[in-house]
Amino acid sequence: MTVEKFSIRNYAAVIAVLMVLIMTVLDVSVVNVALPVLAGELGISDSLTVWIVTIYQLAITMLLLPLSSVGDLYSYRRNFLIGVVIFTAASVTCAMSGSFEMIVISRAIQGIGAACVMSVNIALTRLIYPRNILGRGLALNAMVIAIATAAGPTLAGAILAIASWHWLFLINIPFGIIAFIVGYRLLPQNPPKDHKVDYDWISAIENIIVFGLIFYSLGNFARKGNVTLNICLLIIGITVGIFYVRRQLNRESPMLPIDLLKIKLYTLSIATSVCSFIAQNLAMISLPFLFLNNFGFTEITTGLLMTPWPLATMIVSPLAARFIEKHNPGATAAAGMAVYATGVILLATLKSADITVIDIAWRMAICGIGYGLFQTPNNVVMVIATPVKRTGGAGGMQSTARLVGQTLGATVVTLIFATSIPAKSVYICLYISLAMAAIAGIFSLSRVSRINR
Question: What is the pTM of this model?
Answer without folding.
Answer: 0.76
